[in-house]
Amino acid sequence: MTTLILRRRDADAPSPDEAAGVVASLPAAALVHRSDRMLLVNVADDAQVEVLCGRLRGWVVSRQETTRIQVPDARLRVRTDGE
What we know:
Strand content: 25-35%
Low-confidence stretches: none
Mean pLDDT: 88
Number of strands: 4
Largest sheet: 4 strands, antiparallel
Shape: elongated
Structural class: alpha+beta
Radius of gyration: 20 Å
Number of domains: 1
Distance between the termini: 45 Å
Number of helices: 2
């Protein structure tokens, strides 16, 4: 599963409603979140990415990069007599 960020860059590009309709028409794509200029979409494979790029002229399609950062566990622990 790949998460994509779709950004509307041109005023004459399809509206966010039309773009959401294109996403809904794809069998292996799901709209996660939308705003007035951006959509967050999950797709199953790279073929769906190519379809979105072809159908949504005026929209920038980019992959969401996520980096996990290790955070130390700073929770307080109650000691028992044995420790």
